[in-house]
Amino acid sequence: MTMKRRRGYKQYEARLIQLLRWLFKKANLKVDDHLKIGKLPLEIDLIVKRKTQKEIKISLPRLFAYFRRYNVLELKTEHMPLKPGDLLKLQAYAWLYMEKHEIYSASEVTATVIAHHLTPGVMAVLPVLGYKHISKGVFRRQYSAFATHLISIEDLPDENVPEELKVFSNPQRRRQVFLSCLGKKEKQAIMDALSDLYESEVSKLMGFYDAKPSTVRKYVMAIGKEKVAAALSKEDHLAALNKKDIIAALGGKERLLKALIADLSPEQRQKLLLQSSRNGASKRQNGKAKIH
Q1: In this structure, are strands 109-115 and 30-36 parallel, antiparallel, or unpaired?
Q2: Second label for 97, Cα 20 to 30 Å away, from 80, 87, 176, 182?
Q3: More confident residue, 27 or 230
Q4: Taking the model in full, what pTM does it have?
Q5: So where are the chain's domains?
């Protein structure tokens, strides 16, 4: 799944679901997404299941230690903030899931909202809905038939945020993830998500938006991952490198450039040549204008 342009807010949700699937599957849990429990928009973002109630998964992050056999998750990114009504829908989704699958023991079920941040409107209704602040970034609903949690990624302490959620937190945390995961094959899902969520100037410079991850990695290694990470941390949402930095970093590295071009499809190569010719013509035109 490649983001050719900034396609909108659903792309964030899709990548978040992908990374959470990866996270929970590492713990040998079964994961279903976009589970329909009625006519649209009655759709659960994510269901995470254990095989048995007693099954213990040591690799599951401490943040989700409360998980039981059936776990209903609703996801909210920074571009689609949590609304007070979503907390009511979460309860409805959990009950509908139980009804659909004939689950009659609420003690086997949990319901969770993972939100990027909490708005003042949400904070105002939490006491009314029975949510109690139990730790930094985590709220639990009191007197609920099943365990109900609200997790605010932005407010979680660093040590409690899995890398998969740090990607969707803030620029500083994304920078940490970028530096720690680059070049590690077992973290490829995280790096692919970062590549998609960051519409990089590398792709713009080359004149196309569907560069292979291996191609982008070669550019990053040529520029220096610390320099790239520093650029990422300065952006509010989607990061972009400075074109001058890229050109300066790649200047004179003909062997690298040949290797990069060899990775491209004929169509991509043609786009690159067209882009280069346009850039060259534009520079010549500007030069003539200055002379006159």
Answers
A1: unpaired
A2: 80
A3: 27
A4: 0.70
A5: 10-164, 170-279
